[in-house]
Each structure stands twice: as C-alpha cells, then as structure tokens.
Design goal:
This protein has 501 residues and is α/β, with parallel strands linked by helices. It is 45% helix and 13% strand. The radius of gyration is 23 Å and the shape is globular.
Length: 501
C-alpha cells in the first residue's frame, strides 16, 4: 500500500477556489486500490505542523503563485519528520519555473502541466521498486528533476480526456467552500482552438494545446453533484469553452435545461465561462451563447487584451478592434455579465498607443466594468512574448510571482505606469478582497451589488490614469496630480467601507 498526501498550498488573495488540480490527481490515483490517498487544502484552515507528515510515502504539493514561502516551510517539516518521503511538486510554479525551482529544491520531482498520468506512474514505480531510479523516471512523461548538477526533463504527453472519470471531491473541502461562499470549478475542455497568443502559457501546460473537450455526460454528472452539494454558481475553468464547436455547446445547454426540468440540477444553478471574441462573429456562436443563457449562463469572460491595432499584433490575438467591440456590445445586449482580460501596458508600448487605448476604453465603457483593465503585461517563463522581449528584462526570474521585471522603451509610458502603479498599490489589497467577495456562491443581488461597487472603483482608477497621462504629456504641476490622487483614494475608501455592509 502506497500512502499518498496531496496538498494544495492555497491562495494568498483570500479567495477560496476549489483545488481542482489535486482533486483530478486524486481521482486517477483512487482507480488503483493499492493507493491510500489523502487530500488537504491550506485554505480549509489545516496547519502544516499538524499534517502528520510521517504517515506518507509520497507527498504531492500544488504550488501556486505567491506560495513559495509556504512550500519552503513544508519542505523543512518533511526533512525533519519524514526525510524518506518522496516529494512531488506540481501546479503553476513547478510547471513554468521548474528550471529555477529545482536549483533551490534539487531532491524534488516536478510535474509539468497535466498531472494525472505522471503522478499515477510515479506512485506505481515507487510501489514496485521502492525507489525512483533515474532510468525509470525517464520513462514517465511530463517530469523535470535534478540528476546531480544536471537538469533532466521528459517530454509532455497529452492526457486522454475520455479516460478521465468524474472528479473526486472531498466532502470536507466542499463543506468549507460552501460555508465560506467560495468558488467551485469544473472542466468542460482543455486547450484553445486559437492557441497562438504570444503571451499565452498553455503551450507549456499541455502536450496538445489544441482544444479538446470532455464528454457532455461527464460535465452533466459533475453539475449534478455540485447541485446536490448545494452550489449554485460554478465556474468553468476552460481557456476556450466553445473550441469553435458551437453545436456541442447547444447540446450541452439543452441537456442542462432538461436536467433542471426534471429536478436533477437545481433550477437556479448558473455558471461562468470563458470564450473568444471571435466566437460571436458567427450566427451559430451567438445561438450557442443564447442557448447557454437559457440554461443558466450568467457571466462571460473574454480576453480582449487591447483596443490598439499594434498591440493586438504584438499579442498575436485572433480578434480585431471591431470584433472586440461587436462582441462586447452583443454580450451587453443579451443581458449577460461581462468580465474582460485587458493588458494595457507592455514594454514596447508608445505613448500614442496608450492614448488610443484609453480613448477606446472610455468609448466602450470598459472603465465602468468590475474587471481590472488597467494592468501590465506579465513576462512569464515559457511564453513566446517573453522570448521575443528578452532584451527588455531587468532582472532574473521572480520565481514566487513567476515573472520578469522589465523596462519600457518609451520613457513617458514608463513614468505613467510607475505613477499609476504607486498610487494603485495603496489600496490594492483591499480592492482584491472586494473582488474576491464578488465571486463564488453569492446571491445574485449581492454579487451585482459588489460588482457595481467594483465598477465605481474602476472608474475612479480610470480617471486617475487619465490625469497622470495628461500630467506627463503636458508636464503639469505635480502638486495638482498629488491632490487628485489623494481625493481619489478617499473616494475609493468610502466605497470599500460601504462594501462591508
């Protein structure tokens, strides 16, 4: 019997997202009855010192951005209490930063991307050989590990989605999420039908980063289970919900409607998906969105990223300015909530591009949505744009935040970004908390109330940004800008206080 602990290190933003990664791995491991699997999640309040680490042969850890210090503490406890345990690291940091991670933790094995098959093969190898021999590890796909002073990695291999069973969900974790108004999640697909955005990281996450869908029956069975637990607002984790297969989405919508009619899924269950703006260019795509809305779709995420032609080209987006504009208008016209991805600042941005973006943001009222539009490009490892902009990097990889700091080509853009970032940082954590509260298992009334308050904050942010741009462009008095910022922070504080009522 192989005793396995799967541990998710939680989230640093106080947002309780269901730890779907370790649940998927647990599902695969439980198919083999020789595995005794325990899953834990730091967000539930479990304490590292109380994990009884000496009980386990294998300890698998999901390491998210911002949790490297937690892992360091855990690793010290393992060395102290169970030095013979095999430690396997997965999640965001080991997938994209394994080359730096293994320099700090050379005795850990990293799983890159999808972990179901790789983790299962590791436990199978340990059960048969009682050790992890180098030559045997080379036979397992999707690993990175240190062999002396040499980093070794094996090729990614796509997980067969049809072979994956309904996800195992730990009742204690589900109870915690429900009681804390957290977010439950499920997968409808993996990968992306476009798969060419220069900043996107899915090419390093999946062996086959093209779109692949789960069966409708699996999706429905998980919606039924979540409904039975009492959840009403699940989030689909898909990078690209449709995958250009709009007929499949309509079939799924009809199935959800049927299950609601027969009481198998609660009539009030609603859900969140991510789509491409180009999905709404076709009539079939529009029909699919309308069908899903009838089935309970409440909110759509679209990665707009920019409304500037040159930036869209740098980001290698599939959409155009017109496509973005029309998609936003259509989502509003059918009464869906809209969440957008927007990358305002990047190292190559000119001051003129900044002004174009600000003008468009104002014209299409993105500044009034609850989504945070005024952010910068993250240079993350293993992405195309990070390679292309290598000369802009100013430092080594910040492993905990999984990004490189960079300089801007345009000094005026850099000054605008620096001034805005310094101002935003003052209340950023409080705004994050408000954003977290607006997600998950809230009533429709409460969610809309909090989103409206966030929209008011985004509008204040936008007006401050415009003041900074004007100040930099016209070389105005810094004291006047400082007064504007102080007044805006006072207005944000009032909104944040009202959100707690």
């Amino acid at each position: 019997m192989t005793n396995v602990l799967l541990l998710d290190l939680g989230d640093t933003r106080e947002e309780h997202n269901e730890p779907l990664g370790i649940e998927c791995i647990a599902t695969r491991l439980k198919e083999d009855k020789t595995n005794n699997v325990c899953i834990k999640w730091l967000n539930t309040g479990c304490i590292l010192e109380e994990l009884e680490l000496e009980k386990y042969d294998v300890i698998g850890v999901s390491i998210n951005i911002g949790t490297l210090r937690r892992f360091s503490k855990l690793k010290s406890l393992i060395v102290k209490n169970n030095p013979k345990a095999k430690v396997v690291a997965g999640g965001t940091i080991p997938t994209f930063g394994y080359f730096d991670f293994l320099k700090q933790y050379p005795d850990v094995i990293c799983i890159k991307g999808e972990g179901e098959d790789a983790f299962y093969e590791l436990t199978k190898l340990l059960a048969s050989t009682k050790k992890w021999d180098h030559n045997e590890l080379l036979k397992i796909s999707g690993l990175a590990f240190s062999d002396g002073n040499k980093l070794t990695e094996t090729e990614l291999k796509a997980v067969s989605l049809p072979s994956l069973k309904k996800v195992y969900r730990d009742p204690q974790i589900m109870k915690f999420i429900f009681e804390s108004n957290g977010i439950v999640r499920l997968e409808g697909s993996r990968g992306c039908s476009w798969n060419k955005c220069s900043f996107c990281c899915i090419g390093a996450k999946y062996a086959d980063s093209n779109w692949n869908g789960f069966s409708i029956d699996k999706i429905i069975s998980e919606l039924v289970e979540l409904s039975e637990y009492g959840f009403r607002s699940p989030y689909f984790t898909d990078e690209d919900f449709f995958g250009s297969d709009y007929d499949r989405a309509i079939l799924l919508a009809n199935k959800i409607i049927e299950y609601k009619r027969h009481g198998k899924i609660h009539k009030d269950m609603n859900f969140f998906i991510s789509i491409l703006a180009n999905d709404l260019k076709s009539e079939q795509g529009k029909k699919a969105i309308i069908a899903l809305k009838e089935a309970g779709l409440r909110e759509v995420f679209m990665g707009i990223e920019s409304m500037c032609k040159e930036q869209i080209k740098r980001y290698k987006k599939k959409s155009s300015i017109k496509t973005n504009h029309d998609a936003i208008q259509f989502i509003h016209s059918i009464g869906l909530q809209l969440d957008t991805g927007y990358i305002l600042f990047d190292p190559k941005m000119t001051f003129e591009e900044l002004e174009v973006n600000v003008s468009y943001i104002n014209d299409i009222s993105l500044n009034k949505l609850d989504a945070r539009s005024l952010k910068r490009l993250r240079l993350q490892p293993l992405t195309q744009i990070t390679t292309e902009l290598a000369e802009c990097r100013e430092s080594k990889l910040d492993l905990d935040n999984l990004e490189y700091a960079y300089k801007f080509d345009d000094s005026r853009v850099e000054l605008v970004y620096r001034l805005y970032n310094e101002w935003e940082e003052v209340l950023k954590d409080n705004v994050w908390k408000l954003q977290s509260k607006s997600r998950g298992e809230n009533s429709d009334w409460e969610r809309i109330r909090l989103k409206n308050l966030l929209g008011e904050i985004r509008e204040i942010d936008f007006q401050v940004l415009k003041s900074i741009i004007s100040n930099v462009k016209n070389e105005l008095n810094d004291r006047e800008l400082s007064n504007t910022m102080n007044k805006a922070n006072n207005e944000k504080n009032i909104i944040l206080i009202s959100s707690r009522s």
